[in-house]
Amino acid sequence: MIPALATLLLFQLFGEVAVLLTGAPVPGPVVGLSLLLAALALRPAWLDAIKPTAQGLLQHLSLLFVPAGVGVMQHLQRLGDEALAIGVALVVSTLVGLAVSACTMVWLMRRQNRRAEASR
Q: Which domain of life, per UniProt (predicted)?
């Protein structure tokens, strides 16, 4: 378990370093997970070593929301002052996410239909 956890943290560190060096507007952990995905694609045997630890972390993922909840409670007044802006941002981002997902789904379905027709 310790080597698997060290591997996960090492890839997170790689992601943080890559973002720091390149200045990319992407969170370091996201880059680290992308690097881990690439490493697992190149060496599928690593998956068996990492999977139990990753599943254990995912089972207790709700504990990671405790610090965020404390932060919300500490800044409750500020959230109240900026409620309108936060509400608009949430609604607009949700609608944009739904629209992009729908467009992607339509595009993928058309692409799949074209492939199916071409193979006939």
A: Bacteria
Whether residues 95 and 79 fall in one domain: yes
Summarize pLDDT for 35-66 with one digit per residue, the tens: 999 999 999 999 999 999 999 988 988 887 88
Put simply, whether the predicted model's pTM sits higher than 0.70 gets the answer no
The domain containing residue 111 runs over which residues? 64-120
Residue type, 88: V
Residues 82 and 48 both lie in one domain: no
With 0-12 / 13-18 / 19 or more C-beta atoms within 10 angstroms meaning exposed / middle / buried, residue 11 is: buried
93 alpha-carbon distance from chain centroid: 16
**Would you tell me the crossing angle of helices 28-42 and 46-59 to the nearest 10 degrees?**
140
